[in-house]
Amino acid sequence: xxxxxxxxxxxxxxxxxxxxxxxxxxxxxxxxxxxxxxxxxxxxxxxxxxxxxxxxxxxxxxxxxxxxxxxxxxxxxxxxxxxxxxxxxxxxxxxxxxxxxxxxxxxxxxxxxxxxxxxxxxxxxxxxxxxxxxxxxxxxxxxxxxxxxxxxxxxxxxxxxxxxxxxxxxxxxxxxxxxxxxxxxxxxxxxxxxxxxxxxx
Amino acid sequence: xxxxxxxxxxxxxxxxxxxxxxxxxxxxxxxxxxxxxxxxxxxxxxxxxxxxxxxxxxxxxxxxxxxxxxxxxxxxxxxxxxxxxxxxxxxxxxxxxxxxxxxxxxxxxxxxxxxxxxxxxxxxxxxxxxxxxxxxxxxxxxxxxxxxxxxxxxxxxxxxxxxxxxxxxxxxxxxxxxxxxxxxxxxxxxxxxxxxxxxxx
DNA sequence: GTCTATAAGCCGATAGAC
DNA sequence: GTCTATCGGCTTATAGAC
Lengths: 201, 201
Fold this sequence. Notes:
DNA-binding; 2 domains; Tetracycline Repressor, domain 2; homodimer; 70% helix
């Protein structure tokens, strides 16, 4: 298991995040020891401190990377279109992205409480930025008369919770394909903002 | 702090659940020590073992009591009515009940992973029973033509996630009254199952 | 960059006095 | 029913060899 010779630091640093994410999601931040993470990576616990100053910074790095990747992925996807098409695109994007990273998603919802002051503020702000994506789509669609929404903020929070909830029951070998799930949720989301028919089909 | 004389065991047993719930919700099950719980109750750690055989059983007792109270509260509320009225009643009930017990709700979603085999199965089953309440309302309403729902199971999970999500942002001193929140969510839920107008107003 | 060894302290749980 | 005292084990983090 020793990798003393020929080991590459950046590989270890990356593996610490990958294995830490899996373990934190499975057992909870507080329940996972540095020894457990080290064992999963294939090094001794003390080697971790070459890459992260303490356990807390591992969690911060995982959540930061997740939020940055999420925001970047949406930036790559977004384009100019009407409100209904934008909402449909967002629903598909959110479901697809969140289903593909269940551990990171679970962590970023459940372990915010394990973050200390500065890390908490940074992650919370990035989360808020992502929530604003949904809120902005809903506000624009409401202002131009496409949607019938009383409170865009509440509607955004409701829709985000609904979509993220897929992760609690989705199984890749389950009854429904990802495509089918996207369509079911698009139907419900569109209905919830006052649109009766799906924009396509 | 000692209560050696005149202490009543059942009061301590109850306080352990109350304080344990607060602490577990705030810091996570694994991060809370028996000493912390004991300090919050006002006894020494060893006194806890008079009431619960170990830490795990405290968590099980908290979650069991929560699920039993939730199912009982719905049983007291339910009555014979049409599907739209039943769904509206359920939405109001779920929001009201969950807002009033944020710690228990957070725990029952986040610390399922901290439960060992038997406790997990018991709690999971009670959760499933509660999910069936929503599912049954949606299935009946779909069968009699009230709702337009493609998949009652997915719709139930989506609606439950949306409603439970209120707890992530609700503040009792916030912009919106509980009454107003219920109405906003009823509007969105009704829309998501294909009903355009609210049954009242 | 990773190792071994270790410091200093908290953990869950138990024994026995009152 | 609660206390004090304690056991063995595991924790985060550091020091110094290679």
